[in-house]
Amino acid sequence: MTAPAVSTGVPWTEQLSSLRAMASKLGVDTVVLSDPLNLSWFTGARWHVPQTLSLACFDVIVTDLEDRGAPSVRIVTNTIEAPRLRDTEFVGSDVVFETVPWDEDRARLIPSGLNVARDVSGTSHLNASEEIAALRRILTTEQSAQIRELSRDTARIAGAVAAAARPGETEQRIAGRLVAALLEEGIECVALFVGSDGRIGEHRHPLATAKTINDRVMVACCGRRSGVVASVTRMVAFSPLGTDAERYRMLLEVERGFLDASVPGAHLAEAFAKGVAGYAAHGFDSNEWRRHHQGGLTGFNPRELIATMHSELTLQSGMALGWNPSAAGFKVEDTTLVTPSGAETLGDETAWPTILVGGRIRPAVLELH
What we know:
Layout: E1 2-4, H1 13-26, E2 30-33, H2 36-43, E3 59-63, E4 72-78, H3 81-89, E5 96-100, E6 116-118, E7 126-127, H4 129-136, H5 141-164, H6 171-184, E8 188-196, H7 199-202, E9 216-225, E10 228-237, H8 244-260, H9 268-281, E11 295-298, E12 305-306, E13 320-323, E14 326-327, E15 330-331, E16 333-339, E17 342-346, E18 354-357, E19 360-363, E20 366-367
Parallel strand pairs: 2-6, 4-5, 6-7, 10-20
Antiparallel strand pairs: 1-5, 2-3, 3-4, 8-9, 9-10, 10-16, 11-12, 11-13, 13-16, 14-15, 16-17, 18-19
Helix pairs in contact: 1-4, 5-6, 8-9
């Protein structure tokens, strides 16, 4: 069963150009995308049904990549999802839908052969998972604009929710407010942490609990919209920080090491090493970085690649990073875009206290007392 989508043009120009160049190099004329991250990169659509499963409800088939004309794009899905995808995710896209009954495997509509490249392993096609991932890691012009806007919106919303928190409220109540506020602006919350008081340092991934807030609260989330993902952490103190203010300032200096090293041509491992060296240099335990990962490559997942001393990735302009150093009951985090002029931190600090660190405007701890 085949039904055309509403057609007003051909989107995904940069993605198609990248796939065409890759197909030429690999000697194929068809590419099939099934990995959720690649579906986010190519379409920007919501590929899931249950939000708790990394299982896509459609595949993308791109054909005619050897022709000089425009490639053809087909969406393969089942009869349940086709109407929603057509009406909400692919409006205005020049694609064709191919459907199977919901009780049949859509794999029978997926092409195979030596001229087909896919992003999954198998013997009936060419496995181009690594090649496609390399394309995905560099955001298109449109995606760069989208992640900037998303980062501003996510930071603004997380900041507003954190600023409205009060002692005596539960972590779960704050988490619920954040999810609701994000959804009101079309942002899916794909990672959510709300921790208070001692849990901030003890539980580096503090899933919200029924614990009531006393003196401090950390609100952190990763939001997704149009396929791209932005990360943010904001912290609130309900009593004077005292000497802890300087400790937080030193954590921002640790973050500066990661950011200063995040330039085109640098290795991710090099940026990681320069960042973690900052812990000892700024008065923290030299092994503090071993208590929590420090972040890494982002874009279409909260963390597509967590940085380590052994990361082989070379940073390029257009890559998105999410560094998240933490120590002494504090954490700092924003989305960062690698640009020709260096690391550009993304966010919205217009309604949040800030500190200037290394020429960058960074979030302070909001003190409410």
